[in-house]
């Protein structure tokens, strides 16, 4: 929030502002007006954690073979729309499900690409002179800054949709995401069959012979 407290971050064109993300009243209420340098310092510190976490995650996917479950296949785009229609209660049936459905595979792979894009655009606007080639590939400093901001908005939307989906799925799903395993109640075993005891003095009934 400190980083976005700058007037640069708004929606509009020219001198017309449609939406300012953090108005002056918001900044003054939290005592963070015009503390851009402090916000950028925090931003750059957490950038290294972001980059290291992303690198370790991609290495884990490649080494463990989990990438086969995450990366989309040729049917994922079509099936992802079917999953979305099902979640919106427009379509009843679901396509074949594995560990991740098609919409999750597209979304999770997209987040990896967005993470790389955020890192590249962030470096380009952090050191535009030193990384002038990268900055030029991204369309220049202004375009790189806009792309970085758009990716930030997409991350925020992904986070919100993800949280809503987790809430809909229930507490057990959230717990499994945090712990890495599912906790399921084991149904009790069926009761043993009841065997009636035959008294020792009970008469024995022999089958009658069958006449040919």
Structure description:
The chain is mainly alpha-helical. The chain has a domain at 66-179. The protein contains eight helices and two strands. The protein has helices at residues 24-29, 36-64, 67-70, 76-87, 102-126, 132-137, 141-169, 171-179; strands at 10-13, 16-20. A two-stranded antiparallel sheet has the order 1-2. Strand 1 and strand 2 (16-20) form a beta hairpin. Helix 4 (76-87) crosses helix 5 (102-126) and helix 5 (102-126) packs antiparallel against helix 7. The protein starts with 9 loop residues before the first strand and ends in a 33-residue tail after the last helix.
Give a short summary of the structure.
The chain is mainly alpha-helical.
Poorly predicted ranges (pLDDT <50, ≥5 residues)?
none
Number of strands: 2
Oligomer: single chain
Label the overall shape.
Answer: elongated
Query: For the residues shown, what is the average pLDDT?
Result: 80
Strand order of the largest sheet: 1-2
Features of this protein?
single chain, elongated, 8 helices, 212 residues, mainly alpha, 57% helix
Topology of this protein?
Elements: E1 10-13, E2 16-20, H1 24-29, H2 36-64, H3 67-70, H4 76-87, H5 102-126, H6 132-137, H7 141-169, H8 171-179
Antiparallel strand pairs: 1-2
């Amino acid at each position: 929030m400190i980083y976005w407290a700058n007037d640069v971050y708004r929606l509009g064109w020219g001198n017309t502002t449609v939406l300012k993300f953090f108005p002056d009243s918001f900044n003054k209420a939290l005592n963070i007006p015009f503390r851009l340098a402090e916000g950028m310092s925090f931003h750059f510190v957490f950038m290294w954690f972001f980059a290291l976490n992303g690198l370790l995650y991609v290495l884990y996917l490649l080494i463990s073979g989990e990438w086969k479950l995450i990366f989309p296949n040729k049917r994922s785009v079509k099936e992802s729309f079917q999953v979305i229609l099902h979640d919106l209660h427009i379509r009843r049936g679901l396509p074949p499900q594995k560990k991740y459905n098609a919409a999750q595979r597209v979304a999770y792979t997209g987040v990896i690409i967005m993470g790389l894009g955020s890192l590249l655009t962030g470096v380009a606007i952090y050191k535009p002179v030193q990384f002038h080639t990268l900055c030029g590939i991204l369309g220049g400093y202004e375009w790189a800054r806009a792309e970085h901001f758009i990716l930030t908005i997409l991350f925020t939307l992904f986070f919100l949709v993800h949280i809503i989906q987790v809430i809909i799925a229930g507490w057990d799903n959230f717990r499994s995401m945090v712990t890495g395993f599912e906790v399921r109640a084991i149904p009790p075993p069926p009761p043993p069959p009841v065997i009636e005891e035959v008294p020792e003095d009970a008469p024995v009934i022999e089958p009658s012979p069958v006449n040919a």
